[in-house]
Design brief:
There is one protein chain. With 685 residues, this protein is mainly β. It has seven helices and 39 strands. The chain has a 22-stranded antiparallel β-barrel. Strands 3-8-9-6-7 form a five-stranded mixed sheet. A hairpin with a 6-residue loop joins strand 17 and strand 18. The longest helix has 11 residues. The N terminus is likely disordered.
Length: 685
């Protein structure tokens, strides 16, 4: 178990004595990349944690805000690259499709709520969708993050943390832009953004198209090697190529805003199946369409502000000809499968949600928010065909059979079924004194398929001195069982329609100290207790049978050394209990270091290093612990004028042999991308 040692403390103090973040003062050499000083940065306001705008230090939660300038300076091209810079967050790439999963504080990724413009990306079966690949950085205006519980505000899945991605919308795009990027792995991207006025409306359009062959890690042995190496395709490369289209439109007038988004991922190569077997043939595809209408009036009446949302979302995905779970010639007790084990599935969902909330300011020193909403989630189409296992009636499928349709049966990966969710909430922000503020609230959620849950929160914020802010935060959260756990019969699991939600309680103690206008320290201690965790029992049926506790500390320091040099450093240490629900792929220590230097007029140089500590194996895994690694990236950016901007970036500069934790089916774990690079050009008009 790691502890905060003398070396850790010295490392933190050393980093604090170094120069932060790309937010230097707006001087001429850096004004193309850096729009604010550290003093301005900490005064930025966010709405993710409360009823009204608060700075990150005043917010009744542990909040991080990432801006567009910050994203650009680090060379990040995707949401996954960006989140890796936040204390307490680890982006773990899963071997299946190389999906970037967002982990907070050592918990599983299903304890994270990821939203885009306040709209959850969670589906009913696969959490973030079967072929989730992140969000293009070119579409993002800012990212608001809560480290800790958010169910009292947002409902399900916000147990360990919340990410809300705010995209560029009407009224926010100041200049039109077009850009192109090309780099390693045969990667190309092109994007544009445009904002304008039309007959009283503010309008905005963003678009990005991209394609890549992926980094194709070399797999020495896979899941098939362990059972019959003569049939295994290993050693060989796992292919992770894919194409992406991202289109967004918004229009706003007075208190109204309309947003329409369409994303599609096509020709998605999965690389390795869920069994850890090389699959060179599957090409998946998914798409997501959102149509949202908002009304927001901060002065609806003398004492009330009012906000409403009407949201529609449609998503679908298909595995094409099917996942090749085992290679051709695979043999088991049923016989030989000339085509291998083929698992073909597709599904489509539509979601409709209406939310209404208002804030009452008629009582001195109080801001009382009340609200309600209803959401319909309809998994209306499920198609599932296999050539192994059992058919729709539960009879064995003979080896060598053609594909058999098991849709509309309990043996399909999910049922066609509708979930209805109704919620109510109330919250009061009470300014006790000029230096003390108490936030208290609770949310009630009622689910049509498993019941109801109440999740409260309390936050006390104390402006201890003019430089120090202290917070004491408590919150309860939950994760709703998904359709696999509730309804689907598979060869490895049995459902349980009586499941309760997973629950958690979190206590945070946080301090933010501004030593000066150029030096900031943040310290956060947390206790995260999870109960009723869902797992399979000895009969393979899902049950609420687990408890798990994680304690930790998150340290962050930012120093703007001068007008052209700035640094950021953070360090996280966690101590998980030794229960069987400990999530071993998460290291107990992580660190991040970054500096930005405006070394000449219109030039900016960025270096950043992510360090992930050693990861222990499970009790039944005899492999050695997975080594720690450090990945360093560097980006140089040049603005030749107010219109043209150029950049070059090298990722994994020192070609570190970094590996992501996998199960025993992939003995040597999953290699992360080797040294790679890109160049890009942007033109503003």
């Amino acid at each position: 178990m790691p502890y905060i040692t003398k070396q850790h403390i010295l490392l933190t103090l050393f980093a604090a004595s170094l120069p932060f973040n790309t937010f230097s003062a707006p001087t001429e050499p850096l004004d193309h990349f850096i729009s604010m000083s550290l003093e301005d940065l900490v005064s930025l306001e966010t709405t993710i944690a409360t009823t009204s705008k608060r700075t990150t230090t005043q917010a009744p939660a542990v909040v991080t805000l990432i801006t567009e300038d910050d994203i650009k300076a680090t060379g990040a091209t995707n949401l996954a690259d960006i989140l890796q810079t936040v204390p307490g967050i680890h982006i773990r790439y899963h071997h299946f499709i190389n999906r970037p999963l967002v982990h907070f504080r050592g918990a599983k990724a299903n304890q994270t709520l990821l939203m885009i413009n306040g709209n959850t990306m969670r589906d009913l079966v696969w959490n973030l969708g079967l072929f989730w690949k992140g969000v293009p950085a070119s579409t993002i205006e800012r990212i608001e993050i809560i480290r800790g519980p958010g169910s009292a505000l947002f409902g399900a899945d916000a147990a360990a943390g919340v990410v809300n991605v705010i995209t560029k919308t009407a009224g926010r795009i100041q200049r039109s832009e077009a850009g192109i990027r090309t780099g390693s792995f045969n990667t190309t991207s092109a994007w544009m953004q445009h904002g304008d006025h039309f007959k009283g409306f503010e309008i905005a359009v963003t678009a990005e198209v991209s394609s890549t062959d992926g980094h194709s890690p070399y797999i020495l042995a896979d899941g098939q090697t362990l059972t019959d190496s003569s049939l295994s395709l290993a050693p060989d490369n796992a292919d992770y190529g894919w194409k992406n289209t991202d289109l967004r439109f918004s229009a706003a007038i007075e208190h109204w805003r309309l947003q329409a988004d369409y994303t599609q991922r096509s020709d998605v190569e999965i690389g390795l199946t869920g069994f850890g077997v090389l699959d060179p043939v599957t090409m998946g595809e998914d798409s997501r369409f959102n149509l949202d209408l908002f009304y927001n009036n901060d002065n609806y009446s003398e004492h009330w502000s009012l906000a409403t949302e009407l949201r529609y979302q449609h998503l679908d995905y298909t595995s094409g000809a099917g996942f090749q779970e085992r290679p051709p010639g695979y043999t088991d007790t049923s016989g030989t499968y000339p085509d291998g084990l083929i698992n073909q599935n597709s599904a489509a969902e539509r979601h409709l949600a209406f939310n209404l909330n208002g804030v009452y300011h008629g009582i001195n020193n109080h801001a009382i928010r009340v609200g309600a909403g209803h959401k319909i989630q309809d998994l209306y189409s499920v198609e599932h065909l296999v050539n192994f296992g059992v058919d729709a009636d539960g009879n064995d499928i003979p080896a060598g059979s053609t594909l058999v349709d098991i849709s509309d049966s309990e043996h399909a990966f999910a049922p066609e079924k509708q979930r209805n969710i109704t919620h109510f909430f109330i919250e009061d922000v009470w300014q006790l004194t000029p230096f003390w503020e108490l936030t208290a609230g609770a949310r009630y959620d009622d689910y049509s398929d498993f019941g109801d849950t109440v999740n409260p929160r309390l936050a006390l914020v104390w402006q201890t001195t003019d430089k120090l802010t202290s917070k004491l935060i408590y919150g309860r959260a939950f994760r709703a069982p998904n359709y696999n756990e509730l309804f689907a019969v598979t060869s490895r699991s049995l459902p349980n329609s009586e499941l309760e939600p997973e629950r958690s309680e979190t206590l945070d103690i946080a301090f933010s100290y501004s030593a000066s206008n150029s030096l900031l320290f943040n310290i956060n201690l947390f206790y995260f207790d999870q109960t009723d965790l869902i797992d399979r029992d000895s009969d393979r049926q899902y049950q609420n049978i687990g408890d798990h506790t994680i304690r930790g500390i998150e340290l962050e320091t930012r120093w703007q050394a001068n007008e052209t040099l700035a640094f950021v450093f953070n360090f996280t240490a966690r101590n998980q209990d030794d229960s069987s629900f400990r999530f071993n792929p998460e290291a107990e220590e992580e660190a991040y270091l970054r500096f930005d230097w405006g070394f000449r007029k219109n030039w900016n140089l960025n270096f950043q290093t992510n360090w992930i500590g050693e990861r222990e194996r499970t009790l039944i895994d005899t492999r050695e612990p997975l080594d720690d690694f450090s990945v360093t990236d560097t980006t140089i950016r040049y603005a030749s004028s107010d219109d043209w901007e150029f950049a070059a970036s090298i990722r994994n500069l020192f070609d570190e042999d970094a590996r992501e934790y996998t199960g025993r089916s992939i003995p040597d774990d999953l290699p992360l991308p080797e040294r790679n690079a890109y160049i890009e050009a942007r033109y503003k008009f």
